[in-house]
Amino acid sequence: MIDFKELSAYADAFTCSENERLKQMEQKAAAIYIPIMQPSSMAFLQQLIRWTGARRILELGTAIGYSSIRMALAAGSDASIITVERDQAMIEEARQNIETLNLQHVIHIVCGDATEELQEVVAAAPFDLILIDAAKAQYERMFHRYTQLLREEGIIVTDNVFFHGLVCDVDGVKKRQLNRLVKKVDAYNHFLAQQSDFDTVFLTVGDGMAVSTMKAHGAHREER
């Protein structure tokens, strides 16, 4: 049986960063465990942006700006990316990375808690695509909050939905705090699958990714 982590590493080996700054960010993240998207997940997200032509994008969880930068490179110079982060140190580092690549006209950082209503985010809606990549325990809460800011037939992408494969063996996770978190992620996955207003597919890319597409209003009416 092939190990899931080994397969992910194999896929990651075929992806490449667009520039030296991104390579440096990847190296730093690996060295001091900064949470950024895995290369294969990021590559798929970039392709999704190109396929759908998404231009108005919301990211929940900026970290050092890695994902927002790569989304901006895929979306183009006429895109508008709003990214939300509450850690001030992360914000400062992300801003430096974004300015180094001259993408400050595309990416706007909002300082705040992604689980709360943020007026700057509301004012920028509706969004073509929303990336949920912040606190895993709050995934469902964030989905509820930001669904209303998504355009019809827009897409919500959630990263880390397999949580290192632990969702396949929740009872086998013995550490109490970790077990609670894994249960939350597993419950979120079941929640996504039950949303009648969305079509969701779960992908075995990176650490697991869910792509949820809002159905057109006509489709809603037909189901009822």
Automatic annotation (TrEMBL):
<feature type="binding site">
    <location>
        <position position="133"/>
    </location>
    <ligand>
        <name>S-adenosyl-L-methionine</name>
    </ligand>
</feature>
<keyword id="KW-0460">Magnesium</keyword>
<dbReference type="Pfam" id="PF01596">
    <property type="entry name" value="Methyltransf_3"/>
</dbReference>
<dbReference type="GO" id="GO:0008171">
    <property type="term" value="F:O-methyltransferase activity"/>
</dbReference>
<keyword id="KW-0819">tRNA processing</keyword>
<keyword id="KW-0479">Metal-binding</keyword>
<feature type="binding site">
    <location>
        <position position="85"/>
    </location>
    <ligand>
        <name>S-adenosyl-L-methionine</name>
    </ligand>
</feature>
<feature type="binding site">
    <location>
        <position position="159"/>
    </location>
    <ligand>
        <name>Mg(2+)</name>
    </ligand>
</feature>
<dbReference type="InterPro" id="IPR043675">
    <property type="entry name" value="TrmR_methyltr"/>
</dbReference>
<feature type="binding site">
    <location>
        <begin position="113"/>
        <end position="114"/>
    </location>
    <ligand>
        <name>S-adenosyl-L-methionine</name>
    </ligand>
</feature>
<feature type="binding site">
    <location>
        <position position="133"/>
    </location>
    <ligand>
        <name>Mg(2+)</name>
    </ligand>
</feature>
<comment type="subunit">
    <text>Homodimer.</text>
</comment>
<dbReference type="InterPro" id="IPR050362">
    <property type="entry name" value="Cation-dep_OMT"/>
</dbReference>
<feature type="binding site">
    <location>
        <position position="160"/>
    </location>
    <ligand>
        <name>Mg(2+)</name>
    </ligand>
</feature>
<keyword id="KW-0489">Methyltransferase</keyword>
<dbReference type="GO" id="GO:0030488">
    <property type="term" value="P:tRNA methylation"/>
</dbReference>
<dbReference type="InterPro" id="IPR002935">
    <property type="entry name" value="SAM_O-MeTrfase"/>
</dbReference>
<dbReference type="InterPro" id="IPR029063">
    <property type="entry name" value="SAM-dependent_MTases_sf"/>
</dbReference>
<feature type="binding site">
    <location>
        <position position="67"/>
    </location>
    <ligand>
        <name>S-adenosyl-L-methionine</name>
    </ligand>
</feature>
<dbReference type="GO" id="GO:0016300">
    <property type="term" value="F:tRNA (uridine) methyltransferase activity"/>
</dbReference>
<comment type="function">
    <text>Catalyzes the methylation of 5-hydroxyuridine (ho5U) to form 5-methoxyuridine (mo5U) at position 34 in tRNAs.</text>
</comment>
<comment type="similarity">
    <text>Belongs to the class I-like SAM-binding methyltransferase superfamily. Cation-dependent O-methyltransferase family.</text>
</comment>
<keyword id="KW-0949">S-adenosyl-L-methionine</keyword>
<dbReference type="GO" id="GO:0008757">
    <property type="term" value="F:S-adenosylmethionine-dependent methyltransferase activity"/>
</dbReference>
<feature type="binding site">
    <location>
        <position position="37"/>
    </location>
    <ligand>
        <name>S-adenosyl-L-methionine</name>
    </ligand>
</feature>
<dbReference type="GO" id="GO:0000287">
    <property type="term" value="F:magnesium ion binding"/>
</dbReference>
<keyword id="KW-0808">Transferase</keyword>
<protein>
    <recommendedName>
        <fullName>tRNA 5-hydroxyuridine methyltransferase</fullName>
        <ecNumber>2.1.1.-</ecNumber>
    </recommendedName>
</protein>
